[in-house]
Amino acid sequence: MLTYIKESIDELRNNVTLPPKAESYNLMVVVAVFSIIFALATWGVDSLFGKLVKLYFNNILN
Q1: 27 in Cβ contact with 19 (< 8 Å)
Q2: Against a cut of 0.85, is the pTM above it?
Q3: Cα–Cα distance between 40 and 32 in angstroms, integer?
Q4: How far apart are CA 43 and CA 4, in angstroms?
Q5: DSSP letter at 18?
Q6: Domain boundaries in the chain?
Q7: How far is CA 43 from the centre of its chain?
Q8: How far apart are CA 43 and CA 35, in angstroms?
């Protein structure tokens, strides 16, 4: 396990490069926008299913 951790740290130091700040910023904006759109879509589907369940149970109980 210790060897794995040492090799991982070595690989991070020698083989991984960070993208430029401008590219990182653009990618961050893309991820933020996608997250907001996905959250709104999830909220919409949840609201729709909630209304359908209420409608279903109101019709069965009445």
Answers
A1: yes
A2: no
A3: 12
A4: 42
A5: P
A6: 17-61
A7: 14
A8: 12
